């Protein structure tokens, strides 16, 4: 939708008719990741200034939706999957398989364009990290996190998420 598209323009700056026309002209891909894994990755990347994972989680919970960083805000508040009909939803942990399918559907040679991804190693590592980090949290923090991410857990199939247990 060339007439209105610029790098700096946000979708919210357009009226409903323009938004519908623009979204209809693009292939929309949404990349999703287990919210607990997003928290772990953010903590490990040093975005949290707290010395422990439990303190970092408490900072996230205390900040809530208003002061939260994009790295840990619920996906449904960022990507609006109920309002935007995405053509593809790609789940972290299955990137190689899903990106290959996406590239083939777009008519591109999947093998030569994909980086070497080892999905099974990523899944195993995050399962181990999740167990370690989850054990640091209080029962109240676990309950609050599950509530904080309830809409993400309902919208996407994170079947092995510690937050849905």
UniProtKB/TrEMBL annotation:
Transmembrane listed as a keyword: yes
Subcellular location field: Golgi apparatus membrane
Molecular function as annotated in GO: sulfotransferase activity
EC number from the UniProt entry: 2.8.2.-
Keywords, alphabetical: Carbohydrate metabolism, Glycoprotein, Golgi apparatus, Membrane, Signal-anchor, Transferase, Transmembrane, Transmembrane helix
Protein's GO biological process: carbohydrate biosynthetic process; dermatan sulfate proteoglycan metabolic process
One Gene Ontology CC term in the entry: Golgi membrane
Membrane topology: Single-pass type II membrane protein
Pfam families associated with the record: Sulfotransfer_2
Family the UniProt entry places it in: Belongs to the sulfotransferase 2 family.
The protein's name: Carbohydrate sulfotransferase
Species: Gymnorhina tibicen (Australian magpie)
